[in-house]
Amino acid sequence: MGRYWTIAVFSTIYFIGMCTLTMSASIPALKPAQCVDSVCPSATPYQYAVFFFGLYLIALGTGGIKPCVSSFGADQFDDTDPEERVKKGSFFNWFYFSINIGALISSSLIVWIQDNAGWGIGFGIPAVFMGIAIVSFFSGSYLYRFQKPGGSPVTRMCQVLVASCHKWNLTVPSDSSHLYETSDKSSAIEGSRKLLHTDELKCLDKAAVVSEAESKTGDYSNSWKLCTVTQVEELKILIRMFPIWATGIVFSAVYAQMSTMFVEQGMVMDTSIGSFTIPAASLSTFDVISVIFWVPVYDKVLVPIARKVTGQGRGFSELQRMGIGLFISVFCMAAAAVVEIKRLQLARELGLVDENVAVPMSIFWQIPQYFLLGAAEVFTFIGQLEFFYDQSPDAMRSLCSALSLLTTALGNYLSSFILTVVTSLTTRGGNPGWIPDNLNKGHLDYFYWLLAGLSFANMVVYVFCAKIFKSKKAS
User: In what helix (H) or strand (E) does residue 269 lie, and over which residues does it extend?
Assistant: First the structure.
């Protein structure tokens, strides 16, 4: 479909989902009856169906929009112009900045409206703004630069695998010029430049070997039997990027603590400021504030300084940027562990170990770990967006952006898996374990140190992978 129409279609799906959610919270027939004293009637199957239909439409819309919006925005910059290449690096920074401005408004103002004015209005306002966003997107259509869609990248990858298996008994010529490639200046793949041959993963080059039968007939049209060098190199690039991609999963597992263990830790700390009580989950706002702080600092202060040192237009390469983020994530987990050590020490001094109550230690001691997580996020997540856009083949940029976003989902699963294993191992023999219901009896600090250790090991693996990584070569 191309990025433009994918954004257009899935934005509309998202908007319909938001409207459905708004109706499920506004129309009396679509929401459960009001509670009578402490008795709250359950929703009917139909009401549940409408509610979840709206949620899943939003999930579907998000999946279509997110990988394409950043890629489509970056498409507006000319890669062949050095000045525009530098501006493209800034685009990713400010793109992520704008997302976090929206997140800040959503987690503060919109949440307040939902609590005080009702869910109908609370869902209705984002629905209206989503409608405005769609109109805004279409209004700029005559200004956009469009890249021709190159067809399904998954199909092309499967063709390379099938063709290389089909020709497993053929020998790859030592001279790569004998491998099949179109004679035209442009690639056979729409919207993609030709890619130069590389010597790695020679087994895949078999897909581009012209057999005797094909040479005699002159029929090179069956892509399931014969692929171009560019098509083979596309798959090679994805395979080369895989180790870098995999290291992002561990970082995302650390990032997942913001909405899980950080909240649990905050719930057993002093959440009051005078007569006002701060919900433990609301401290994630400091992560958003940290991102909003660090993006302009990175773009306007750190990049110019790094530019003078490295001589690179963007200051840091994408790989350097992600590495710095992984390094900061180690300190984030260490900071969380130190706070927990102090909290447990205070619990022991006050005799609160056997009581499942909050310890009189201000929840604001958590701010440094949120602030460090926000800094790590600016370096790693935005670095990922840049890396997967710049290093991916031209016709695979949306796919690679989707893969970078997939690390967030897999990181959450990894976090759950680690938590399950830790709980299983530490509760043997009747022990309360590291993370019992009463955290005053546990050792959440050990869990944080474990994640800090995993982050450090992940960073070491990343440095090794980054050193051997080879950038794509376009002709």
Answer: strand 269-270
196: Cα separation from own chain's centroid: 30
**Amino acid at site 448:** Y
- Measured between alpha carbons, how far is 160 from 208 in angstroms, rounded to an integer? 8
Pull the structure tokens for residue 202: 């020679």
pLDDT in tens, the chain (475 residues): 788 889 999 999 999 999 999 999 888 888 888 888 778 888 888 989 999 999 999 999 998 898 888 888 888 888 777 778 778 878 888 888 998 898 888 877 888 888 788 888 989 999 999 999 999 999 988 888 887 777 788 888 899 899 899 888 888 888 888 888 887 777 777 767 788 888 888 888 888 888 888 788 877 778 888 888 888 888 898 888 899 999 999 999 999 988 888 888 888 888 887 777 777 777 778 888 888 998 899 888 888 888 888 877 778 888 999 999 999 999 999 999 999 999 999 999 888 888 888 889 988 898 999 999 999 999 998 888 888 888 888 778 888 888 888 898 899 999 999 999 999 998 888 888 898 888 888 899 999 999 999 999 999 999 999 988 876 555 5
Look up residue 234 and give its amino acid. E
Q: Which helix (H) or strand (E) holds 156?
A: helix 153-166
User: How far is Cα of residue 48 from the mean position of the Cα atoms in its chain?
Assistant: 29
d(CA 137, CA 69): 10
Spatial distance between the Cα atoms of 112 and 126, rounded to a whole number of angstroms: 13
Alpha-carbon distances of 259 from 44, 300, 370, 415, rounded to whole Å: 30, 30, 11, 11
Dihedrals phi, psi of 437, to nearest 5 degrees: -60, -40
Six-digit token string for 159: 């063709």
Tokens 């509309």, residue located: 12
Structure tokens at 422: 């830790």
How far CA 53 is from CA of 17, 19, 60, 118, in Å, comes to 7, 11, 10, 20
Question: Residue-wise over 412-429: b if at least 16 C-beta within 10 A, else e?
Answer: bebbeebbeebeeebeee
Give the number of other CB atoms < 10 A from CB of residue 94.
Answer: 14
> For residue 326, what are its two tokens?
């992984």
CB 156 within 8 A of CB 231: yes
CA 436 to CA 467: how far, in whole Å?
42
| Two structure tokens written together for 129 | 């703004």
Name the one residue in this structure whose structure tokens are 């990584």: 469
Q: Is 184 helix (H, G, I), strand (E, B) or coil?
A: coil
Model confidence, pTM? 0.82
